[in-house]
Amino acid sequence: MTNFIQEGRSPLILASASAARRKLLASTGLTFSTKAAHLDEAAMRTALGFKGTVDPSDVAEVLARAKAEAVSGQSGEAFVIGGDQIMSAGGNTYGKPQSFDEARARLLDLSGKSHRLHTAVVLATGGTTVWAYTDVATLTMRRFSPEFVGHYLAAAGEAVLGSVGAYQIESLGIQLFEKIDGDFFSILGLPLLPVLDALRREGAIEG
């Protein structure tokens, strides 16, 4: 399947160290390599006014563009996919938790409340973005006890630190939720259908 979809076409690169994005893209049957951009995302978020002065969707898109363009500028004619995800709640915006203590505090703060995930994805080639897309999902957590959070974090392990919300809805993290409104793939970090459509339109894969 992969040969006829990409045969004779430019290479495809995923500019991300995210295991979830890598797994999602691999599920489509495409052949690609991965190359992280190694940007100082924390500094970039601060420069963008990460505490609420800039719309979270715009922050996510700027970071996704930076990743894709940085990698594609060093990758010849390859098509490069870059992505980023920002969480917003109560007027604040969040990146990935840096520790289990931060993850625990975040989950307890989100208990019984709704938050939004802003997922941006960009396609770049030759150092220039040729397509960008941002999707927003709303997720509502059920009320849970501090004891449950402790047990959840112990069972889920370090994987929670790879998610802005300290959860993975595709596995144990679904136990945290009461309601989810949004595209499943976007919530996991990569809106697959729009990405595949863009790749076809740009001639990166067969249409």
Report on this structure.
The chain is α/β, with parallel strands linked by helices and 207 residues long. The protein has one domain (2-201): Alpha-Beta Complex (Maf protein). The protein contains eight helices and seven strands, in the order αβαβααββαββαβαα. It has helices at residues 2-6, 19-26, 41-47, 56-72, 100-110, 146-156, 184-188, 192-201, and strands spanning 12-14, 33-34, 79-89, 92-94, 114-125, 128-141, 177-181. Strands 1, 2, 3, 4, 5, 6 and 7 form a seven-stranded mixed beta sheet that branches. Helix 2 links the parallel strand 1 and strand 2 (33-34). The longest helix is centred in the first third of the chain and has 17 residues, at 56-72. The radius of gyration is 17 Å and the shape is globular. The protein starts with a helix and ends in a 6-residue tail after the last helix. The mean pLDDT is 92.
- Poorly predicted runs are none
CATH-derived architecture: Alpha-Beta Complex
Assigned CATH class: Alpha Beta
Shape: globular
Which class of secondary structure composition applies to the elements?
alpha/beta
Distance between the termini: 13 Å
Number of domains: 1
Work out the helicity level: 25-40%
Number of helices: 8
Query: What's the count of strands?
Result: 7
**Content of β-strand:** 15-25%
Name the helix and strand elements from N-terminus to C-terminus, one letter apiece.
Answer: HEHEHHEEHEEHEHH
Rounded mean pLDDT is 92
Largest sheet: 7 strands, mixed
CATH fold annotation: Maf protein
